[in-house]
Design goal:
Blueprint (H helix, E strand, L loop, with lengths): L1 H23 L8 E2 L1 H8 L3 H13 L3 E4 L3 E4 L4 H25 L2 H19 L5 H18 L3 H24 L11 H8 L3 H24 L15
Antiparallel strand pairs: 1-3, 2-3
Length: 234
């Protein structure tokens, strides 16, 4: 009995991970319509694991359900992007402050490693911008986990899903050199000396600069309409 009961969960987890990665990286673009049948055909998963994955993605805000129309990847609008970064600038610095202060030695090493990877990426000429974005996100995820606060961790995860979507959309559709203002070595030094206040101040400035730069880019896109941000190629 244990094998049949665990197998659907395993397939559901695999389908969820694949679909989440495709949505966050914008391989499945904001606003795209989805059906269980079409996703089953393209991914090779059955309807049941796909349905389970879509339910989880809906709870995370990455997908929304439309009655009689199936599913849709949650669209991005200029207002939603503006609101997203405004909330991140409120929540992010406090999460970082607590994470720096509360991190165990092992967690601090993980944070420093992730942020150092992001810094090295910003110094490379032939860098891959999304790799830097992912490294920064990994560093913030470690900082959130270090707070050991389930509410903050859940809020952080949801914010990072959409922040990564925004960055992926810009990088792949617009200016590939744009990966936003860089995390710098001073933040790593704040983590090393467990200075949560200084780390929070650095992150607040980082988010503010990135917020302004993202909005400047998006407002110039010919594909930005009154309701949704679509891909440049559309």
């Amino acid at each position: 009995m244990s094998v049949p009961s665990s197998e659907p969960l395993s397939l559901g987890d695999a389908a969820y991970r694949q679909l989440r990665a495709d949505i966050v990286s914008c391989r499945i673009v904001p606003g795209q319509r989805l059906t269980e049948r079409s996703l089953a055909e393209t991914t090779g998963f059955g309807i049941s694991p796909i349905r389970d994955a879509l339910t989880r993605l809906s709870h995370e805000g990455l997908v929304r359900t439309s009655p009689r129309k199936g599913y849709q990847v949650t669209p991005l609008t200029l207002k939603s992007v503006d609101d997203l970064f405004t909330l991140w600038r409120i929540v992010g610095p406090e999460t970082v402050r607590l994470g720096v202060q509360d991190a165990t030695a092992e967690r601090r090493r993980q944070i420093i490693a992730a942020l150092s990877t992001a810094i090295r990426g910003s110094d490379e000429v032939d860098e891959q911008p999304m790799r830097r974005v992912e490294a920064v996100a990994a560093g913030f995820a470690c900082l959130a986990a270090a707070t050991d606060n389930d509410y903050l961790i859940r809020i952080h995860d949801r914010l990072q899903n959409d922040i990564t979507r925004v960055m992926a959309l810009i990088i792949t559709e617009s200016d590939t050199s744009m990966a936003g203002p860089s995390i710098d070595a001073e933040l790593v030094e704040c983590v090393e000396r467990r200075d949560g206040e200084a780390a929070a101040a650095r992150v607040r400035d980082y988010i503010g600069d990135l917020h302004a730069r993202v909005l400047r880019i998006l407002t110039r896109w010919p594909s930005v309409v009154a309701s949704e941000i679509t891909t440049v190629r559309d």
